[in-house]
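dumping this here before i forget
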Amino acid sequence: MGKILSLSPQELRVLKPLNTPQKIQSFLDTLAINYEKQGETCMSPRRVLRTHRAHCLEGAMLAGLALWIHGEKPLLLNLQVLKGHGDDDHAVILFKQNGRWGAISKTNHPVLRYRDPIYHSPRELAFSYYHEYFLSKNGKKTLRGYSKPINLKRFGTKWVTDEKDLWDIAESIYDMPHTSFVPRGSERLIRLAHPLERKASNIVEWSRKSKRT
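structure:
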């Protein structure tokens, strides 16, 4: 598989021990968050391994690759936000253990993180992210849609080692149909996040002062 994906021996030495979702998540936790200080990026797994930093989509693609190497499907779930409010979509990689679904996630905040494999379906898992997805400045909950599981194999293999930003894949994911979280008529019933929640959401795992960001 490593040869098919054009991975180097060094890259395989990093990825082969990551043979469970739990180990993959622990590895992602060691990566600095990508603050994109030199401009927006959508790095391939090769570039993520080289720079040792990632944002959510970059981390998701690396996690998907690790699952793929070990014979699992690299299934990505995209969480879509309300546009025009300064928030970003979030991408996670799904996995299934003991008949239940979980998610691997790269984030810099206390929430939107890893999900244990306890969910009956990707839909149920997606809903677990809803209440904690809000703007810290005003508490507005911005999560509005979720995609069907997207098999990253559909994009071929070049993305694994590409030295160029993967904007074509990012745009394809963002443009896919998403199912709405909020039923018609319920928008006006959504309550703002409590000030304590908003305060807690400002905690970050990796600061901008990190040399690797």
